[in-house]
User: Fold this.
Amino acid sequence: MAFARRPIPCPFGYGPETADMLATLGLEAPAAVEAVGPWGACDYRCSRAYDLRRHLGTVHGVVVGEAEARDVAEALREEEE
Assistant:
């Protein structure tokens, strides 16, 4: 049986606290992050840091490197526990 890892939530799923969450993870939030509130939180979840990296860049305009994506993924998994 394969070990299932916890899903990685999008940090934009934290609603108005998104900018603080990104800062805690060492990322700069784009100026548009304040606009996330009226649209609601992002409910995207994935299982790999690579997928989170692609999602953040494509959907939210937050560009992260491979190492950063792994760190962010681990921090977000821990936050969910």
Remarks:
- The first strand starts at residue 8 and ends at 9.
- The chain has a mean pLDDT of 74.
- Residues 66-80 form the longest helix (15 residues).
